[in-house]
Amino acid sequence: MFTPKAMLRGSAATATVVAAVMGLGAGSAHAAGWPPLQPGAHLYSGTGGSGAVTPVDLDDFGTCHTLSAPARSVQVASGSASVVLYSGAGCTGANPWATGSLAQSDLPWPVLSYRVVPA
């Protein structure tokens, strides 16, 4: 049988762990300002997942897509696809940047086009 003192210690420890986990999850998401991670891929006109959102069709492998406005950040949550981003229209420009299949990042430069590739 548990004594009241042991139960209080157990409850306090559980509360501390729950608060720490909630604080870490909420703190890192709030500090970065990113929208919640969701399946698929999205390009954002602003940094930190802000601004206008362009959804990416992760099933459209290999096709080059030119954006109407530059993207400054990207979020990808897929088990099978990643996105290669280009600084120029028509998938041109020096130093294409690839995301990987799980990414949430500000881009090193504005991008004007992208192509979906297998992860």
Explain what this protein looks like in three dimensions.
This is Peptidase inhibitor family I36. By secondary structure, the chain is an alpha+beta fold. Helix content is 24%, strand content 40%. The chain contains one helix and six strands, in the order αββββββ. The protein has one helix spanning 4-32; strands at 40-44, 53-56, 64-77, 81-86, 97-98, 102-118. The chain has a six-stranded antiparallel sheet with strand order 2-1-3-6-4-5, with no helix packed on it. It is globular, with a radius of gyration of 20 Å.
In short:
The protein is α+β, with helices and mostly antiparallel strands and 119 residues long. It is 24% helix and 40% strand.
Structural descriptors:
six-stranded antiparallel β-sheet; globular; 6 strands; 1 helix; single chain; 119 residues; alpha+beta; 40% strand
Secondary structure layout:
Elements: H1 4-32, E1 40-44, E2 53-56, E3 64-77, E4 81-86, E5 97-98, E6 102-118
Antiparallel strand pairs: 1-2, 1-3, 3-6, 4-5, 4-6
Write down how many β-strands occur, each being a DSSP E stretch of 2 or more residues: 6
List the helices and strands in order. HEEEEEE
Give the overall form.
Answer: globular
Total of helices: 1
Write down the Rg: 20 Å
Q: What fraction of residues sit in β-strands?
A: 35-45%
Mean pLDDT: 81
> Biggest sheet, in brief?
6 strands, antiparallel
Strand order of the largest sheet: 2-1-3-6-4-5
Low-confidence stretches: 6-31
Helical residue percent?
10-25%
- First CA to last CA: what distance? 54 Å
What is the SS-derived class? alpha+beta
